[in-house]
Amino acid sequence: MSNRRDERRRAALAVVAPGTAIRDGLERIVRGHTGALIVLGYDDNVRDICSGGFELGAEFSATRLRELAKMDGAIVLDRTGTTILRAAVQLVPDPALPTQESGTRHRTAERVARQTSFPVITVSKSMSVIAVYDDHGERHVLADSATLLARAHQALATLERYKRRLDEATGELSGLEIEDRVTLRDVASVAQRLEMTSRMADEIGGHLVELGTDGGLLTLQLNELTAGSGQDREYLVRDYAPPGPLGAGAQLSDRLACLTADELLDMAAVAAAVRPGLADDLDQPVSPRGYRLLGRIPRLDAGAADRLIAHFGGLQKLLSATAADLRQVAGIDAAQATRVREGLSRLAEATLLDRYP
User: Is 146 exposed, middle or buried (0-12, 13-18, 19+ CB in 10 A)?
Assistant: First the structure.
């Protein structure tokens, strides 16, 4: 699923998440054992397929939605779900549009969603099921909070395991960088862990969107587990992206994101995304530029790190540089040079102690 499409789907689910007025209204309809067909958006395309009914322009409320659902016909809301625009409407979408549904209400919902690109909500009278159709006509059934919480907790436990393995891999990589023994396999291993962690966090984010106000504590846990992961990814990309234009790093991130689940488990495929054309030799040595270690030095801004790396050309020369050498870099004063020198020394010592206790 493309990022843009996934964002639209999540935006639609956020409107009907627990804690929202629309979800309250939908649950009232379910408890009342009536069905409903609701369009979330209104424009010329929606107007053209509306027949009959009446215009309201009334402020949305859960009780109004419940009462209007008792009548035959569809209900049309604005895109944000804050205003009831029309009610008791017969929707007449293009019958040539494909549909996988069999019931009249659900066939109409799928076709309207495809034709108008607005989300369409259905409530099944016989099965008491709430579903949302996206602009591709795909049906997403809303689960109850207990089910979603169980899924989210399971995903968080998986994310915690991924995070531990990522920390182990990044610690190993730091030690190899200091010893100048990094291979493409080592970089691909960290890239793999970062991408797996990112995907799991994104999946949990989808659960949290559906949970709405019920997912508050889980959101705090997710934020704690993912803190700094975006910066770690950026530093890895900047350290090991192939030489080239400014956009090379972004292209590397895109290539990692485009790997399938099976490809992400294949180290050669991950290595090919990191360094195209070199994946045939996973044990080929590679050299970091130094962004990862410089990023761990307090109060060192990105501009200073860029100038240091541009001047010295790589991590090994940075590690061997004295404070006097560092002062030769434009914009680096004596205090900053001393802080960088001492910071790199402490990092090197701590990393090696962790590797060889």
Answer: exposed
